[in-house]
Amino acid sequence: MPVAIITGASKGLGRALAEALAARGWDLVLDARTAGVLQEAADGVRTYGTRVTALPGDVTDAGHRAELVAAAWRLGGLDLLVSNASALGAKPLVRLEALPAEGLRRALEVNVVAALGLVQEALPLLRASGAGTVITVSSDAAAEAYETWGGYGASKAALDHLAAVLGAEEPGQRVWAVDPGDMATDLYAAAVPDDGDPRPAPVSVVPGFLRLLDERPASGRYAVPALLEGQR
């Protein structure tokens, strides 16, 4: 069975992706910071009959990243790495003039430095798989200038560029930066707590990710709304 690591997998998009992959027979290594919520998610994913290893921890911890990759190795290797864990930098979001330096550092550490560290740890297994794939979860804030989204958007823009360079350096792999579009997630609620506009559930964007896995286009940046439009 193919094996995937998904960070930030206790809820939202991470959990929705985990359930979709489990339904397809993937074995999974799941990460999140809150042990109880992660265990609940893992128990739900196991109902699909797949093997699931749940490892609570912080992706900024190099030791935790090594544990995630070692767990994938014990399941048989690694075919897919999904860097979904994200930090906003400020809750709620603020204008750049008020963005605390420690908040920006946290966003960069989680969204960029940790994502690269996990790729570095995982590359030997991804190369050995013969069809290794890296997905970095991006945002439209990485490409558009939205007030108050500067710190988070800057971190995602940096992650997009790392993914682009990784794709150039690893032609044998697929490396996709994926903008999922609008979703109703805890992260968004924390970012903009006063926004009452309804947003789609994370499960609604999963078919876009599955299309990438099925069709395996060239490494690059993809937006889920465009991928879903192409399926209609």
Taken in chain order, the helices and strands follow as EHEHEHEHEHEHHEH
The gross shape turns out to be: globular
Q: Sheet bearing the most strands, described? A: 7 strands, parallel
Distance between the first and last residues' Cα: 30 Å
CATH topology: Rossmann fold
Number of structural domains: 1
Main-sheet strand order equals 3-2-1-4-5-6-7
Name of the CATH architecture? 3-Layer(aba) Sandwich
**CATH homologous superfamily label:** NAD(P)-binding Rossmann-like Domain
Q: From the helix content, strand content and strand pairing, which structural class follows?
A: alpha/beta
- Computed CA radius of gyration, to the nearest angstrom: 17 Å
What would CATH call the class?
Alpha Beta
pLDDT below 50 for ≥5 consecutive residues: which ranges? Answer: none
Question: What's the β-strand tally?
Answer: 7
Number of helices: 8
| Helical content band | 40-55%
Task: Name the average pLDDT.
Answer: 94
Instruction: Report the β-strand fraction as a percent range.
Output: 5-15%
Pfam family, one: adh_short
Family: Belongs to the short-chain dehydrogenases/reductases (SDR) family.
Keywords: Oxidoreductase
Protein name: SDR family NAD(P)-dependent oxidoreductase
